[in-house]
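Is zinc ion placement plausible here? Inputs below.
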Amino acid sequence: MALLQRRTQRRNTSSRTSHEAWPTSEALSFRELREILHRMPKIDLHRHLEGSLRLQTLTEIALEHGIDLPSYRTEDLRRYVQARNDEPDYHRFLAKFRLLRRFYQSRAALERIAAEVVADAAEDNVRYLELRFNPIALSRAQRFPLRDVVEWVTGAISQAQQTHPVTVRLILQIGRDEVPRVAEEILELALAYRARGIVGLDLAGDEVNYPAHRLAHIYQRARQEGLGVTIHAGEAGGAANVRDAILRFHAQRIGHGLHAMENSEVVRLLMERNIALEVCPTSNLQTGAIYSFSHHPLPDMLALGLRATLNTDDPSISDTTLTDEYLVAVTAMGLNLEQIRTMVFNALDAAFLPEVERASLREQFTAWDTLQILEEP
Ligand SMILES: [Zn+2]
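Reply from A.M.:
I modeled the complex. Tokens:
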């Protein structure tokens, strides 16, 4: 049955507005569903530059710079870089970054990697992306000055946006094991590069062994200065980490936040403060944060009215795209297309953008809502 005919199979609800022509996901084949989700303009608030390197690019950089690898065939590299066939494990997942960080060998390599992230996001019809990176991690291979790294990445991203239909903003990331002096330096860089698209500060890394309370004041200051704050919490650690992220670090968004659902007090806190949850299902499966997609708390988050969003985390490590994550949400978690749409608009509301820019982006997404999604492929 053609998609056009199925447009008449509408769900009978009175709350429909501009998206009233959405087909039900049950009526679509897997291929048609994937096409719709791919074509749909999307927002990714949680993607790491360091987890977004194309395999082909890795091979080419390795050959160019003489990086010692177990193999130089792109397909062979897959099992070293990607987590898809690994036993789910948080620390094993994080260890993938140790290999990936060897590829930041030159300014040209860094700029290429950054530009390719923008191209890949645009190809997946991501129309607004908040990309995060840890300048320490990118500087380490060649001991580049941190400021140079930030300069190169912001420059490459801004140039790539001129040729791809995606708006990109940047978040600087601090590791949980970072010393306060270096963390402060990263905050200063974030503030200094606001005009170049840096909009927020993130805390990431080993949540089990590093509560990172000694860094909390840096995030409080980031908020006072007008930067957005997002904290990885409740992924490998418990609900208490999510509470800390909100109360001590003043987070407006939580990376993952799955274990918050185990504590009603923390759930209430998320609701009262309208904190956004950056959910990344495939990553959650691969880190062992969930046992299976059917155990994922995302449907419960949405049922409670929490501000849940859907994101990729590390497309290269997880071998995924945002379209794939949407597909998983529909086919493996039972969400419908209206819930998918809700998450896109949740992401829009939670983006670290000034209100004027948010309003303009909302206009675009509202216009795209019916125009693009339902056009015939
Ligand atoms: Zn992450």
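Short version: Strands lie at 42-48, 126-133, 167-175, 198-204, 228-233, 253-256, 276-279, 307-310.
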